[in-house]
Amino acid sequence: MTASTPPGTSGSELPGTTEGRSTRKRREITDAALALFLRNGYSNTSMDQVAADARVSKQTVYKHFEDKERLFHEIVRGVTRNSDHILNELTAVVDDAPVGTAEELRNVLEQLARRYLDAVLQPHVISLRRLIIGEAERFPELADHYYQQAPARGFELIETALQRWVDQGLLAVPDLRLAATQLSYLALGLAQDRAQFHPGQTPEPAERAKIAKAAASTFLAAYRR
Question: What is the CATH number of the domain that holds 144?
Fold first, then answer.
């Protein structure tokens, strides 16, 4: 141990400590920027504001992110990765519940619709969706990335489940992708649109249960074998 090395700390640990501090600063910057983008939009957010809210120098912000566009890309792509949580919620429904009869299928479809509602209607999910739609013309590739990683993956998951139930003889579905999107929007359409245009207005649990039940019944009326 050299004289310049703090007691109890080996020289090899110092780079890790520095890297940890850098990672923490980067997270503080992205957290502050996300809050500002959601509140003020892209155009009305400045790097000076980001630095102030993150409690770091403007130089530190630019050390991590070349410009505001790069910062916005980093945030949207990072938050989009959280769509895995929603997909895991849906996967748990279709994989864990046994489906061998028409009544069991109805129950699973109802659970799936309800779980979809609860996941997508979270305030931060709605706020991020609103932000990305608002900036879609400025960042079309970023909007497409969000769509492919979030809604489109949800459709694919439901499509796979529908194929399984078709193979079991429970459903007759001529177009699986179309049916998957129909089930999604039967569950989400009204509530999601209302939340998009009226922040904070999401259905209470009783209304969500009603929506989920109606979504399952309507879907089965069209596709039940």
Answer: 1.10.357.10
Distance from CA of residue 69 to its chain's centroid?
A: 21
pLDDT per residue as tens, the chain (225 positions): 334 434 344 443 344 445 588 889 999 999 999 999 999 999 999 999 999 999 999 999 999 999 999 999 998 888 777 788 888 889 999 988 789 999 999 999 999 999 999 999 998 889 889 999 999 999 999 999 999 988 999 999 999 999 999 999 999 999 999 999 999 999 999 999 999 999 889 999 999 999 999 999 999 999 998
Residues 130 and 59 in one domain: no
Four-point Cα dihedral 148, 131, 44, 74, nearest 10? -40
Domain that includes residue 212, residue range = 81-223
